[in-house]
Automatic annotation (TrEMBL):
One of its GO terms (molecular function) is catalytic activity. PANTHER family: HISTIDINE TRIAD HIT PROTEIN. It comes from the Bacteria. Pfam families: HIT. It comes from Paenibacillus baekrokdamisoli. This is Histidine triad nucleotide-binding protein. InterPro entries: Histidine_triad_CS, Histidine_triad_HIT, HIT-like, HIT-like_sf. Signal peptide: none annotated. PROSITE patterns: HIT_1 (PS00892), HIT_2 (PS51084).
Length: 113
């Protein structure tokens, strides 16, 4: 399968990982949009939020658990952060492997566009 994030999971494309377990990987975004910008992804290839099923309930919950943990480790839990999922073209999705952006480290602008 020609998926950039599956290649990152396999290690075929290098990344700066900050977390990994059997189900989830998190790594620094290559083009950070904030002082802290980390992508949290399931190892299971799920293309978009629309492709999540009830079978993935525990996995989805764990993505948020990992996001909270990384926010703490990055020192932005108390100052604040933003979690974003872009779904499909008009949502701004570029990589079609489900991911949550963890953004923080400065004051976020109001959601725009
Ligand atoms: P999307 O727009 O699909 O929600 O977000 C995709 C994100 O992946 C973007 O923020 C982009 O900077 C990031 N990205 C694209 N290619 C790479 C890569 O090769 N390595 C890493 N670490 N991030 C990438
Ligand atoms: Zn994938």
């Amino acid at each position: 399968m020609d998926c950039l994030f599956c290649k990152i999971i396999e290690g075929a494309i290098p990344s700066k990982k900050v977390f990994e377990n059997e189900r989830i990987v998190a790594f620094h975004d290559i083009a950070p949009a904030a002082p802290v910008h980390i992508l949290i992804i399931p190892k299971k290839h799920i293309a978009t939020m629309n492709d999540v099923t009830e079978e993935d309930d525990a996995l989805m919950a764990e993505l948020f658990t990992v996001a909270r943990q990384i926010a703490k480790e990055q020192g932005i839990a108390d100052t604040g952060y933003r979690l974003v999922n872009n779904c499909n073209d008009e949502g701004g999705q570029v990589v079609y492997h489900l991911h949550i952006h963890l953004l923080g480290g400065h004051k976020m602008k109001a959601l725009a566009d």
